[in-house]
Design a protein that fits this description.
Layout: H1 4-58, H2 70-77, E1 82-83, E2 89-97, E3 103-118, E4 122-130, E5 144-148, E6 153-156, E7 160-161, H3 167-177, E8 183-184, E9 187-197, E10 200-209, E11 220-232, E12 241-253, H4 256-259, E13 264-271, E14 276-283, E15 288-295, H5 302-307, H6 311-318, H7 328-338, H8 342-353, E16 358-363, E17 368-369, E18 380-383, E19 388-395, E20 405-412, E21 415-426
Parallel strand pairs: 7-8
Antiparallel strand pairs: 1-3, 2-3, 2-12, 3-4, 4-10, 5-11, 6-11, 9-10, 11-12, 13-14, 13-21, 14-15, 15-19, 16-17, 16-20, 18-19, 20-21
Length: 428
């Protein structure tokens, strides 16, 4: 093996070459971007039109525009959604094109929440933003590619904040409202523009809890927004942004069906294989969450895997914990080269395969319910030193599909289990 000085010298040379290649790549990308800009609007229109036709043809049911999983879609079609019927909220605004410096003062940019879904894990809203005629010189609704509200704060009647807020934005919010937050729910978010119609843009905000956090059974949601960010589709490859500054502060009443939501608890009744068991099982309006334990293959540590991959990685993991060279940046750089090796990719795939297991639910009517696919992290797992995997999974089984007994079907490395769960009580 090379000594540390030789290995470090080689790494530094590779970094220098990599940086040069990146510069050349960026120059090429800028040239390509200039050529494809005129094609962008046409491509977007083709995608939008095909999507409209498809949605119309496949079903008359309500389409889950939030993209939060089949369970949520089922709940929506059973009426678990609120049309708020609220009035638009106007604000005096200052609109600025951050690239050109152009500024317009206006008092007719309005906003409202038109639809709402809330359960223990999901808080999804449709915002409608209506731009005034005066803004058209800077941006029109049809030109908006992306829109977001970077300083949004959502809090309930007990001053519990529902979304993660940057420290500086939270400070401004507290000074402005004189509100002292009781707590902040650990959450993630995804945002996208759903639809544009004349001067109105519909923006979907999906907030979802992380870890063990859950949303409270709030009766009121107060929404405070000071900035709207919008990007123009002509600059999809660039950085031009429009900032609309104002003060939108309004309340959304949560319907009783959402704040009086009840959870149903299930417990394991039987299993066909003692290597598989259920720790907890809770049924919600929009899905069923189950904590599963099973005997798995022991997982190697990151260091164990990478030491055999390359001399550079072996060198990195041989460094003392307090060595200045042992940085995340250096590790990421070395890994970017090592992971391109087909043999190393094969080793990684073998390790990742240790985490894969089949899982689905059936009710007593024989209906099948899959693992939920949505923005919220699902299927998080850990493997202990004895090779026991614990995984918490959400399935698309809802209260509307539930029966007194539910069967969880599992398979791992040729081993199978059918675990029967029985309803025991309702949670508060």
């Amino acid at each position: 093996m090379k000594n540390k000085k030789e290995t470090l010298k080689e790494i530094k040379l590779k970094i220098a070459i990599s940086n040069l290649l990146k510069e050349e790549e960026m120059k090429s990308k800028r040239k390509i971007a200039d050529k494809i800009k005129p094609m962008v609007a046409v491509s977007i229109m083709m995608v939008s039109l095909s999507g409209i036709v498809f949605a119309k043809d496949i079903s008359k049911k309500i389409y889950n525009k939030y993209f939060t999983g089949t369970g949520v879609e089922k709940a929506i079609n059973e009426g678990y959604i609120e049309d708020t019927q609220m009035e638009e909220q106007n604000a005096n605004t200052r609109i600025e094109n951050e690239e050109t410096g152009e500024i317009i003062e206006d008092n007719a940019t309005s906003m409202k929440v038109s639809e709402l879904i809330m359960d223990d894990f999901t808080l999804s809203m449709t915002f409608e933003v209506t731009l005034s005629e005066n803004i058209k010189n800077i941006i029109t609704a049809e030109q908006v590619m992306e829109m977001s509200f970077p300083d949004i704060v959502i809090y309930d009647e007990n001053n519990i904040i529902m979304n993660n807020v940057y420290e500086e934005d939270l400070k401004v919010f507290c000074q402005k409202t004189k509100i002292e937050p009781k707590e902040m729910v650990n959450s993630g978010v995804n945002v996208f523009v759903l639809e544009k119609n004349q001067n109105t843009i519909k923006v979907i905000y999906n907030f979802y809890t992380g870890g063990e956090s859950s949303y409270p059974k709030s009766k009121e949601l107060h929404i405070d927004i000071g900035r709207i960010k919008a990007s123009k589709n002509e600059t999809i490859m660039g950085n031009e942004e429009i900032t609309i500054r104002g003060n939108w502060n309004f309340k959304v009443d949560v319907p009783e069906k959402m704040y009086h939501r009840e959870n149903v608890i299930y417990q394991q009744k039987s299993t066909t294989n003692e290597d598989f068991k259920v720790e907890t099982a809770v049924l919600y309006h929009t899905g069923m969450e189950i904590k599963i334990q099973l005997k798995a293959e022991k997982q190697k540590s990151r260091a164990e895997i990478e030491k055999s991959m390359s001399e550079e990685l072996e060198f990195y993991w041989s460094l003392d914990e307090n060595d200045k060279l042992k940085s995340i940046d250096l590790l990421n750089y070395i890994e970017s080269y090592a992971y391109a090796n087909p043999e190393i990719q094969k080793q990684i795939e073998e390790e990742l395969e240790k985490w894969n297991f089949e899982k689905y639910l059936t009710n007593t009517r024989g209906e099948k319910f899959e693992f939920t696919q949505g923005p919220r992290e699902n299927g998080g797992a850990s493997i202990d030193e004895n090779g026991i995997m614990t995984s918490t999974c959400m399935f698309d089984l809802t209260k509307y599909d539930a029966t007194d007994e539910i069967t969880l079907h599992l398979a791992y490395k040729g081993k199978k289990a059918d675990i029967v769960l029985e309803k025991i009580e309702k949670g508060e």
